[in-house]
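Entry 14. Structure prediction run on the chain below.
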Amino acid sequence: MPQLGPVRTIPFREIQRPGYIVERLLIETLPGFFVGANVYRPTANPATRKPAVLVAHGHWKHGRVEHTEAYSVPALCALLAVNGYVALAYDMVGYAVAANDVWSIDYKGWFRTGDGQRFEPLTITDNASRYLLRLTAMPGIEQKRVRAVMEAAFREYGLPKAIRSDNGSPFVTGAPGGLSELSIWWIRLGIRHERIEPGEPQQNGRHERFHWSLVKEMLDYRIEWDLPLQQREFVRYEREFNEERPHEALGMGTPAGAYRASERSYPARIPEMEYDSSYYIRRANWQGRFLWNGERVALSPVLAEEWIGLKEVEEDLMEVMYGPVLLG
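Output returned:
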């Protein structure tokens, strides 16, 4: 068996709790690939060695095997810590092992071209293969602009199972469930929207690592005169990144060698939201309101003309849903 070297970790935050400490960190499991983790340590007798428990259930909601009232990973780890154990809860990598399992999307700040025009690089990557699906110099972050870029990517590569984003505009809004016009479109296409927790960029670690490379290798020193020239340079970088550059995490292969287009093609017609027979179904009007028992219920204009599902969970208590998203 080969000799194992030391594991590289990057701590970045520590939280004090009664009887224990939570340390947030990144663990380099493969060269250049980090997973997020939380370490729960008891505060009593800090100098003594303590038994440790590995909790391979993930430290955030999309990495956990289960996270319910009956079984909560943070609650379990906290309980272990106050009873004298060190608990390490880390994200498994199995939720993005194949191409198109998860795409990540984000903006990488803003820059100015030589002629003074502001632009914001919109980036879309495939998590498993690291394939750079889109790198676009955007003059703004309006949803219609993003949708046009994404629709072109869907037509070229097909549909992923999930799209991961942060909680900023235009991916998330103040509407119930955080829904936006973009996320509603994704849901209707059968794509799960994964939102990382606020202030936790490491939960989109592979995409953040790509952003680091993009800044160091281009944006720190090579900004073109105008947007058309900048986009041409982005196309060159995209081709080099995908087809020429080997990645240690891919066995020194390239993203283009690891990526395969999705078998789910972009449909000619966007399907309407559907619900099973256990739901009452209502359609929101142009203001995002619907009628229930003779009263108008206000949701949000984001949900204008969309089908809403209502399900009775207790007597006189209803859940209001948009597909898989709880609205209230």
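The radius of gyration is 23 Å.
Filed with the rest of this week's runs.
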